[in-house]
Amino acid sequence: DAGVIQSPRHEVTEMGQEVTLRCKPISGHNSLFWYRQTMMRGLELLIYFNNNVPIDDSGMPEDRFSAKMPNASFSTLKIQPSEPRDSAVYFCASSVTGGRTGELFFGEGSRLTVL
Amino acid sequence: AQTVTQSQPEMSVQEAETVTLSCTYDTSESDYYLFWYKQPPSRQMILVIRQEAYKQQNATENRFSVNFQKAAKSFSLKISDSQLGDAAMYFCAYRRAGNQFYFGTGTSLTVIP
To answer: Which helix H or strand E contains A21, and what residues bound it?
Structure first.
């Protein structure tokens, strides 16, 4: 079975540019999470969707960040305009709400560098 | 609020020896899951082991086992017969019944040949 698929794996952009990160969760999973990982702050939850509806976006840093989940098989995280401090690895993860195993399945992450 | 604490930022172990990574958590709930994830240099987050809070028996997966102390809210990971491939960052995670996950800050494990 395919795991969580993220694209791009690496993105280098200049300050002020728009960045869009994409995620395809595991088929049948109804919860999707976006995390940001940096050395300074560790793993931070940005936003969490359940059945395509945003449940908790309290971790979204500011209005420059937005996330959508138009359907059960696709989500985007957009940063506009990007800033150097946004440089991080962004992970998408999915799970089954109330699932027997309860675990999160992670994608391979998107490493973003903003110059 | 739920918090997960990993008090050991770094640990090292000799190859073939045993190491224990510590994790404590804070919760008022009785039904939850606990996990250990491994993140090697490739950065992929890999599930190592899980524990359901209602189970008294400690989970075991080959060389990996946990010591789950529910009353003490402690969830340590023991790695036996450590191998070079075990070198990674290890994250302890808590999942509440409402499907929200909380991660610790991680422990970087070095395996010395």
So the answer is: strand A19-24
